[in-house]
UniProtKB/TrEMBL annotation:
Residues that span the membrane, as ranges: 53-71, 83-106, 126-146, 153-171, 177-195, 207-229, 241-264
Taxonomy of the source species: Bacteria, Bacillati, Actinomycetota, Actinomycetes, Kitasatosporales
Keywords from the UniProt entry: Membrane, Transmembrane, Transmembrane helix
UniProt-recorded name of the protein: YndJ-like protein
InterPro entries recorded: YndJ-like
Length: 275
């Protein structure tokens, strides 16, 4: 399972995060984006080394990079002075990888941080790259492109659901289930808005196909996440972690995250070329 998880994390570190940063603010975040490979490459290597001092040191380098990125959130807030739903989603996206960075350092050091087992820490790393960074970022982009209460709900519920899931780690499985419910509702709202409002006829067929795949995948992957959370809380049969990594994890990484950032990059390029 963890070979697949590591591959998913590498995709997040080296491809999805830097591509997402271009969508947030290509000018002001350009210095961070240019430095990002210097942080992400050591982090990616750390995943494949045995736990110990070398892996931990490389993970620390990546964690520093995530803190540099997280520092952009208060800077953006001071500049924009906005707590509009789309902005809250973007601020969450900038801060979320720092949770993944901390979890990676602890897991590579073999330290059960806050009492969490090493497998849970290992799974926290992809969760806060994709549910934390990508999902919040896309929710913010969708909110900016689609008007109405559902768009604002999506932009607020995705960050709230992600943070509630994190809080649930410290409380119990029922609190984590509550977070999963909120996050699922938000992601399904993102899927609906993407399919209905964003995937317009003004886009080329390739962009429309990427948006369609990202929306359709979310319906299935979040249903899997919800079934796992319900099973954990109610102690009833549910998919195992290996199955979840191969379905929910891989689907979100390739079908949702990668397709979404590619589609939104094409949308952004189209708008810039039209100016």
């Amino acid at each position: 399972m963890f070979v697949l998880v590591n591959l998913i994390v590498v995709l997040g570190m080296l491809v999805v995060v830097p591509a997402g940063l271009r969508l947030v603010d290509p000018v002001r975040l350009a210095p961070v984006r240019r430095m990002w490979p210097m942080f992400a490459a050591p982090g990616a290597v750390a995943l494949w080394l045995p736990r110990g001092a070398v892996a931990t040191a490389l993970a620390v380098v990546y964690a520093i990079g995530t803190l540099v990125l997280a520092a952009q959130a208060p800077r953006r807030l001071i500049r924009t002075r906005s707590l509009a739903p789309a902005e809250i989603a973007v601020l969450t996206a900038l801060a979320a990888p720092s949770v993944a960075g901390l979890a990676l350092v602890a897991e590579r050091a073999g330290h059960e941080l806050f009492g969490f087992t090493l497998p849970i820490l290992a799974l926290t790393v992809p969760h806060f790259h994709f549910a934390g960074f990508t999902a919040a970022l896309v929710a913010g982009l969708v909110c900016g492109a689609a008007a109405g209460g559902l768009a604002r709900f999506a932009a607020l519920s995705v960050p709230l659901g992600t943070l509630t899931v994190l809080a649930g780690y410290f409380v119990d499985d029922w609190a984590e289930l509550a977070g999963a419910l909120v996050l699922t509702a938000g992601m399904w709202a993102v899927a609906l808005l993407t399919w209905r409002d964003v995937r317009g006829a003004e886009h080329d067929p390739y962009t429309r196909a990427l948006l369609a795949v990202s929306a359709a995948v979310l319906v299935a992957t979040m249903l899997l996440a919800l079934s796992w959370a319900v099973g954990q809380a109610a102690d009833i049969p549910h998919p195992g972690l290996t199955w979840m990594a191969a379905t929910h994890g891989l689907g979100n990484a390739l079908g949702f995250a990668l397709c979404s950032v590619l589609a939104w990059r094409r949308i952004k390029d189209m708008k810039e070329s039209a100016v």
